Amino acid sequence: MSGFLILLVIVVIVILAAVGIYNGLIRLRNTSEQAWSDVDVQLKRRYDLVPNLVETVKGYASHEKETFEKVVQARNQAMGAASPGDKAMAENFLQSALKSLFALSEAYPELKANQNFIELQGELSEIEEHIQMARRYYNAVVRDLNTKIESVPSNIVANMFGFEKREYFELDSTEERKVPEVKFS
Questions:
Q1: For residue 165, what is the DSSP state?
Q2: How far apart are CA 24 and CA 13, in angstroms?
Q3: What is the pTM of this model?
Q4: Measuring CA to CA, how many Å separate 172 from each of 53, 87, 99, 128, 178?
Q5: Which of 34, 4, 73 is nearest to 166 (CA)?
Q6: pLDDT of 40-98, one tens digit each?
Q7: What is the pLDDT of residues 148-167, one digit of tens each?
Q8: Domain map (residue ranges) of the chain
Q9: d(CA 160, CA 22)
Q10: What distance in Å separates the CA atoms of residue 41 and residue 125, rounded to the nearest whole number?
Q11: At the fourth CATH level, which superfamily is domain 2-160?
């Protein structure tokens, strides 16, 4: 009888541990989804700002059609990207296109002095900061989730219930890791 009781206690402990691990994995998965949503919100703010920037610059540099088209194309690509890896690649392209757009301001002193342009530049700077914070938080949550999925004994529960590692939102090169520098002076 005492052997049966010991076995029953062990089974109950194993079941409770598995439930605890499962709930922890669920919590991390949901947190990573919420963190990705936060990244998406910040990226959407940037996407919404881009047309305003393009229109403001167009007023001063209407003959720079190729630059405007690149920015719009980059924005559309970034908006259509789904996975963190695809989104990171598209974001790199958008940042590069925005750098070209801001380089135009150097050739147009009246554009640099335009109040609307200055406000848009300030908004972009703020959005870039928020994107960086959201990206760091997302990657931290993904790190925690992936670690739990790979660690013993939680990897057993993760494999049983089909939990999969998440992809980090990473930039490809050291040059792309730099925050875009936007100067208007």
A1: P
A2: 16
A3: 0.80
A4: 26, 11, 17, 17, 11
A5: 34
A6: 999 999 999 999 888 888 887 777 788 888 899 999 999 999 889 899 899 988 988 88
A7: 999 999 999 999 999 999 99
A8: 2-160
A9: 10
A10: 16
A11: LemA-like domain (1.20.1440.20)
